[in-house]
UniProtKB/TrEMBL annotation:
Residues 62-307 form the Capsule synthesis protein CapA domain. Signal peptide: none annotated. It comes from the Bacteria. This is CapA family protein.
Length: 387
């Protein structure tokens, strides 16, 4: 009887313990739930409408160009070293300026056929290949090669020059290796902005283009230009034309230049970089028939050459911004902030050639450099104010 009583007491005790534990668990759960509700529940939540709209994007790219790289024999003889040729010191005073733009074009007036073709100056040029090395070092991103000296050494010369440019990775435009190369648009991309570069020349100093090899140099032809401009416009945000035109040593554009400028911008060109006169000609805005605003600089003059006096030793760099805006309404392109930085080719007895900022040229032998700087800036920018 005593054993049964003990079993009964034990059973009741276990039940009481289970009941107590269950009660504690229940109270903790309720308290925990209450605590959670108290901490995290937001009774006074503010209701807000969430609007989902397309975001706006804007990219700004600065492009620039310099004028003729015209390597006379006095220039390459001055660049001679024990190992070859070094043109880099000639650009050292303006390198900081040249490396500022995002994309810089230079007009490579003379072919870079190198020693194997025989170096020569005026009237049929062939320059050391080290000229290209110096341009790359100074910040040049692409060279135009359609000019009146493209065929100075015939097909062999321009093919050799293009081969070298391909080897060092410096894009060229205006002369081409074959028909396929001619059809390949030169489109440079920077920060999502695609810029197509085209190049044409008025002629080749009477040297005939080899029959069936029109690809060696782009000659000015409105039908051909129109076709390429339209093709470039379909694939790029901005179309840039480097063009060899005008009269040598004339400081203002002639009627032919102005008419051709209006033709190409109305076909779709946005920026025109002019070359050939060997002196500076002004820049201006042109309002196109479709409402765009195109930029033209008629001549960038000589950037590096052996020519002196009568404005032939004054050149410069022009730059402007391309602003690409993407909104829910579409994509727009705006050109803005054209700037001109004039330069001077300093030398002493046809030695020690250096390209220097015109404003500082007094330290390099140019008399009345400050007044010359003011004259050049007025000459180049005045037409911008009337557009």
């Amino acid at each position: 009887m005593k054993k049964k009583d003990n079993k009964w007491i034990l059973t009741i005790g276990i039940l009481l313990l289970i009941a107590g534990a269950t009660g504690v668990f229940f109270r903790q759960t309720v308290q925990s739930s209450t605590q959670e509700n108290r901490v995290f529940a937001k009774e006074d939540h503010i209701k807000r409408d969430i609007l989902v709209e397309g975001k706006n994007y804007q990219e700004r790219v600065n492009i620039a160009a310099i004028g003729d790289i015209l390597i006379h024999d006095t220039v390459f003889l001055d660049a001679a070293t024990a190992e070859g040729y070094d043109f880099k010191p000639m650009f050292s005073h303006v390198k900081d300026t040249l490396t500022k733009p995002d994309i810089l074009l230079a007009n490579q007036e003379t072919i870079l056929g190198g020693m194997e073709l025989g170096l020569s100056g005026y009237p049929t040029f062939n320059s050391p290949r080290e000229v290209g090395d110096a341009l790359i070092d100074a910040g040049v991103d692409i060279v135009s090669t359609a000019n009146n000296h493209t065929l100075d050494k015939g097909e062999k010369g321009i093919q050799s020059s293009m081969g070298y440019l391909s080897e060092v990775g410096l894009p060229y435009v205006g002369s081409f290796k074959n028909p396929e190369d001619q059809q390949r648009l030169r489109i440079l991309n920077h920060d999502g902005v695609n810029i197509a570069y085209l190049s044409y020349t008025y002629g080749t100093n009477g040297i005939p283009v080899p029959e069936g090899k029109d690809f060696l140099v782009n000659l000015i032809d409105k039908a051909a230009m129109k076709e390429e401009i339209h093709r470039a416009k379909d694939q790029a945000d901005v179309v840039v034309m480097s063009i060899h035109w005008g009269n040598e040593y004339q400081r203002t554009p002639d009627n032919i230049q102005q008419e051709l400028a209006h033709f190409i911008v109305n076909e779709g060109v946005d920026v025109v970089f002019g070359h050939h006169p060997h002196v500076l000609q002004p820049m201006e805005w042109i309002q196109t028939d479709d409402g765009r605003k195109a930029f033209v600089i008629y001549s960038l003059g000589n950037f590096l050459s052996g020519q002196m006096w009568d404005y032939k030793d004054i050149g410069g760099m022009v730059s402007l911004d391309i602003i690409k805006k993407i909104t829910s309404d579409g994509t727009t392109i705006e050109l803005a902030n054209p700037e001109f930085s004039p330069t001077y080719v300093s030398s002493s007895g046809q030695r020690n050639y250096q390209v220097v900022p015109l404003e500082q040229a007094g330290k390099y032998g140019l008399e009345q450099a400050k007044s010359k700087y003011e004259e050049i800036m007025s000459h180049m920018t005045e037409p911008l104010k009337t557009n």
